[in-house]
Amino acid sequence: MSALLSATCAVPAAGAVLTAALPAGSTESRRRTTKVVALGVSAVTLVLAALVATRFDPHGDRYQLTESYSWIRSFGITFSLGVDGIGAVLALLTAVLVPMVMLASWHDADPAPAGPDGSFENLRRTQAFFALILAVEAMVVVSFYATDVFVFYVFFEAMLIPMYFLIGGFGDRAGGPEAARQRSYAAVKFLLYNLLGGLVMLAAVIGLYVIAQDQGFGTFDLPTLTNAIADGRLQLSGTAEKALFLGFFFAFAVKAPLWPLHTWLPNAMGEATAGTAVLITAVVDKVGTFAMLRFCLGLFPHASKTFAPAILVLSLVGIVYGALLAVGQKDIKRLVAYASISHFGFIIMGVFALTSQGQSGATLYMVNHGLSTAAWMLVAGFLISRRGSRLIADYGGVQKVAPVLAGTFLIGSLATLSLPGLAPFVSEFLVLVGTFTRYPAIGIVATFGIVLAALYALLLYQRTMTGPVKEGVRAIPDLKARELAVVAPLVALTVLLGVYPKPLTDLVNPSVNATLSQVHQTDPAPAHPVAATPGGEQK
Question: For the chain, how many helices (H) and strands (E)?
């Protein structure tokens, strides 16, 4: 039995403990040691996640590199890990983004001077900050690899704890006590919303176990349950299946976030550091959309088809609503947050269109949104740290004083509006095509989200980067070497996957097809079949 998956999960977890245990950062050299250790651990995790992705055989079993360790035997709970193409790709995305977040946040947790004597307060801020990032990474990776429903639930909920401290304890230091109160409010709101979703899911997990045990399946093993449901050995009544589906889906919709359960996201992203905001929207929130594919569709196929039209309507509202609010934002971070709500609407729409194009596009969208939004948000964070303001009105003419920063911000903006040739275009196109083939009206209305995306992305660029140079912008320096090391790989991947997405599609398509077979769905036949010539050849 290979231990590659458990190693990929264990390395960041052990790194979090090691980082937290390092000596307090009373000197710059100690703080640098902490940062280098944490960055090194994230680099090792990236190598392991890449090995998992390269060793996954798209033509092999659905779950590969499987591991299983007994945990709570009396309830049939095992620490079971296994990777499919979708989990492999999303875990790799997480492993790519975490080092970028660390480099971008290199000085975000340095202790602030406490007084004129040169002493510092909160000397363990640096250790805590980087340890929390590694803890989040470990829990997210376990969530992508877990094949035991209970194990997934535990880590799905556990990741809220380090995220709560990252949001509430490490935010923008400007603003004094009022800013601290806003951070505290955002952190508590994030925690309460997601805890509520988790408690509803826990009731559904228990209900699923009770029903399965009554029919001789006293286990939480996902492949066992999905196979038994698929071949009729485990039967759920219509009412029970719908109730259990809603319990799981509610938790995932809060995490995703889906309108109208989204209101925690603008607060959390607005008050967090730029790096933490990337962790929220590009890493943690992807667990929710991933779980819709793996758990909702796999365990409750009939309920998924029943509720799909209603979920598509909610997704459509989220696309338009998020984009409209992004257009009207005055705060850069909140604009990115509302844009992400719109993008998550596209992802969920692709999942529940129940077509191969839609689900392939949704999976690619998770990856491409993570890369493009990370680049956009991190460059915005560099800009905000220089100027000391999140308000769009405080900027203007940045491209004249910091052309490289403005150029990378432009690429992030163009990727956000899904410009052809950049990665998000491929995924958004697949989602819209996959939706249109089954629900034409929803697919047509959803295209207005693209128009609105162009509006908010280009308006933001115009108002901040062009025009006369404002007084507070004149002294803004351009991107430094460390910051270029953060942005360059993200931009390169955004361009590469926009031109050549085949490596990702080869990995995810078999898992998408397996998911569709679980819900007994096939792609709709073309409305206008291809005509044949008299000689039998197709035109």
Answer: 23, 2
